[in-house]
């Protein structure tokens, strides 16, 4: 009896999940396109240590005071410190 009741509960839960009952519709703006070339680094930028990281080109961005990094899955991963404060 318990196993039958458990099976019915699981089947009902899966049916509700498939139908999407009770789920909120999530919408978000897509991330901005990743700039492949990046920006031109300023003269006081630290030396670029690699051309590629994890298969992605290392580029300069002026975000967060300026730093080297890569675009991965729509997010920017920083690879150097901020050139203004020399920190994160």
TrEMBL record:
Top-level lineage group: Bacteria
Keywords: Signal
Presence of the UniProt keyword Signal in the record: yes
Residue numbers spanned by region Disordered: 24-46
Keyword Signal recorded: yes
Residues in the signal sequence: 1-28
Biased composition (Pro residues): 29-45
Protein name per the record: Uncharacterized protein
